[in-house]
Write a structure and sequence with these properties.
The complex is a heterodimer of chains A (292) and B (340). In chain A, 80% of the residues lie in helices and 3% in strands. In chain A, a hairpin with a 2-residue loop joins β1 and β2. Chain B is globular. Classes of the chains: A mainly alpha (292), B mainly alpha (340). At the A-B interface, α3, α4, α10 and α12 of A face α5, α11 and α13 of B.
Chain lengths: 292, 340
């Protein structure tokens, strides 16, 4: 009985952690290729969640709604490169990028509060109402669907990054911007694509999580902690590292919630980050190595 | 690129000091001309935010590390004061405790986080702010969660010699006195030689190390010092509003503080204080609704970060440049704050 409870917590942690990993990948890719850390990443998640809810209501199908939200967010992502991130890339210092993207996040949060109100919006899907019995473990159908969608998305992303010209160009820029430019990799187009992909990944994560958690103006703040913890611990720009640490964060939250308290569950990502910083400030953190 | 290393320490002249004195008296005195307790509440809160802004100006403007920790230590100080008040500790001691605990937290965090890049530092401070908020919400055995800690009332004998002044007025006098001292000490620190060392760290950390500056020590001291001031003013805030709940850790509370520094010009001294105070009182004077107010603060951060990284003083300089026929040049970003 206890063993099944443990297995249950582990399985749920892995399911949710994969989604966290996918969400954090958007942040990680943007830093790798554009050199920008988007402090409004959580609020992009929030906007995508509202879009998914709205599109589901209009189109009458949850799958179509999420797909529409992903496409719209990708377009917004590409546009945001030309309107905002390109300027930050060329003109700003890290501190100013932090200030500007944080400001964007605050505008999105309070704008949503003004326009849409503070109440959580929810979508009910057939999957979230289903509970699967897998060898005695009870898994929420919504989480299983979320996991499956994320695994497929990760596979597509991996194929894109390793098999297509644009994807290889993205990796080249993240390794060495100048060399990539010398070899004729178009910077603007590649970076805009990266941000579009980052926004699309975020929209996928938001789409599959909305039936589980709902969406409200400040939800981005809950998720940005997890994303930041994941990317700092997992190393910015590392695809595998981000996903693995994402699963680790999901697992530690789930186990802490099951065996200790909800307080620890909700601060697990935060504590994990502080522990890693205290024990291995330069070891796991690729970002830290960049400072001479 | 930029002008090289600039360690100018402002030496104010007599006219400057008189102007500053008049401005300070005007700032501290205006609630008396306003209408009753409401004006005192606005002014108290504006001064509270101003202490946080001047602390942020030290860490971010002078030293070059963008920190969301100022409001985190503010909230920590508020909770420490509230908890120690409930434990029967006296008014003065609980406020000192707020400062000590916040300084200790900043010391611990700064010792690791200030070794990271400026990006990673900003991330860690945001995570700390949100993490403390979550802890305050869920660690309900101690914090009572979202219900908060009520009845944090100052002692009835507080400033009893002032006679029959109302409670908000008495607390305003205490807050104004403490805020003036804290801001003056920080101002003195920023304009001292030590402030010059911090400016060198902002502009070229490698050079600072090369000339023998113990960079991490100075950074940690500055961060802990700013954290201490935030904790003290946070503790006073708890007594003023008589109630502490997790909203003291809200990101929305951090935005006006950052907006004050951005508009006043990061690294500038006087303009951050004057512009910051105006940012603190104007939304209340004009009674903006809350969410709309934060949209405006958010826009200030966005546009400031994008277009005006050196605040309103640089805009004034640019306009003056144009007036004398000088070419309108784009303001260079603050030098040396880049990681790569």
């Amino acid at each position: 009985m206890n063993l099944i409870y443990l297995a249950d917590s582990i399985a749920n942690g892995i399911l949710l952690g994969t989604v966290y990993g996918l969400f954090a990948l958007g942040l990680s890719l943007m830093f790798g290729v554009a050199g920008i850390i988007n402090f409004a990443h959580g609020d992009v998640f929030m906007v995508a969640g509202y879009l998914a809810v709205g599109a589901t209501a209009v189109l009458g199908s949850f799958a179509l709604g999420v797909a529409a939200s992903v496409i719209v967010m990708a377009v917004i992502g590409a546009a945001s490169y030309f309107l905002l991130f390109r300027r930050l890339q060329s003109a700003s210092t890290p501190a100013m990028t932090v200030v500007a993207t944080l400001g964007l996040g605050v505008v999105l949060q309070n704008g949503a509060l003004l326009v849409l109100g503070g109440e959580a919006q929810r979508i009910q899907t057939a999957a979230t109402r289903t509970t699967l019995d897998v060898g005695g473990m009870f898994l929420n159908g919504g989480r299983v669907v979320a996991f499956a969608v994320c695994v497929v998305s990760l596979l597509i992303l991996w194929l894109f990054l390793t098999r297509t010209r644009l994807g290889i160009g993205m990796r080249a820029i993240s390794q060495n911007r100048e060399a990539a430019a010398v070899y004729g990799i178009p910077q603007a187009r590649t970076t805009a694509t990266t941000i579009a992909i980052g926004f699309a990944l975020t929209a996928i994560a938001a789409g599959v999580l909305t039936p589980l958690f709902g969406v409200y103006p400040m939800i981005g703040l809950v998720f940005i902690i997890k994303a930041f913890a994941i990317v700092v611990v997992g190393g910015f720009g590392s695809l595998v590292g981000t996903v693995v640490v994402g699963i680790a964060v999901g697992l530690s939250e789930s186990l802490a919630g099951a065996y200790v308290s909800s307080a620890l569950q909700n601060t697990a990502a935060f504590i994990l980050l502080l522990l890693v910083l205290a024990l291995r400030p330069h070891g796991l953190v690729k970002l830290a190595v960049r400072e001479s | 690129m930029a002008t090289g290393i600039d360690l100018t320490v402002a030496k104010s002249n007599v006219a400057g000091r008189i102007t500053a004195g008049v401005v300070i008296i005007a700032i501290l005195g205006w609630p008396i001309t306003g209408s009753g307790d409401y004006a005192f509440q606005i002014a108290s809160f504006a001064l509270t935010l101003l202490v946080l802004a001047v602390g942020l100006n030290l860490v971010f403007g002078v030293m070059g590390y963008m920190s969301l920790g100022q409001t985190a230590f503010f909230g920590l100080g508020a909770y420490v004061a509230a908890l120690s008040h409930n434990a029967g500790i006296s008014f003065v001691v609980s406020i000192l405790l707020g400062g000590v605990v916040s300084a200790a937290a900043a010391l611990l965090l700064g010792f690791t986080a200030l070794r990271l890049t400026r990006y990673a530092f900003a991330i860690v401070t945001l995570v700390m702010l949100l993490g403390l908020g979550t802890a305050a919400l869920f660690w309900s055995d101690v914090t009572r969660g979202a219900r908060g800690l009520p009845n944090i009332v100052p002692p009835p004998a507080l400033l009893a010699f002032l006679g029959d002044l109302s409670e908000p007025t008495r607390l305003y006098i205490v807050i104004a006195a403490v805020a003036t001292v804290l801001i003056a000490v920080m101002h003195f620190a920023m304009t001292s030689d030590w402030g010059g060392t911090l400016r060198l760290i902002r502009q070229d950390e490698g050079l600072a190390m090369a000339v023998g500056v113990n960079v991490i020590k100075h950074k940690v001291i500055a961060f802990a010092f700013a954290g201490m001031t935030a904790g003290v003013i946070g503790a006073l805030h708890a007594y003023r509003v008589t109630f502490v709940d997790p909203s003291v850790f809200a990101v929305n509370l951090a935005t006006p503080v950052i907006a004050m520094v951005m508009l006043g010009g990061p690294g500038h001294y006087g303009s951050v204080i004057v512009v910051g105070y105006l940012v603190g009182i104007l939304p209340d004077v004009f009674r903006f609704a809350n969410a709309g107010r934060f949209v405006i603060f958010g826009l200030i951060l966005m546009l400031g970060g994008l277009l005006l990284p050196e605040g309103l003083p640089s805009l004034y300089q640019r306009i003056r440049q144009r007036g004398t026929g000088g070419r309108l040049s784009r303001v260079e970003p603050t030098p040396g704050t880049g990681d790569d």
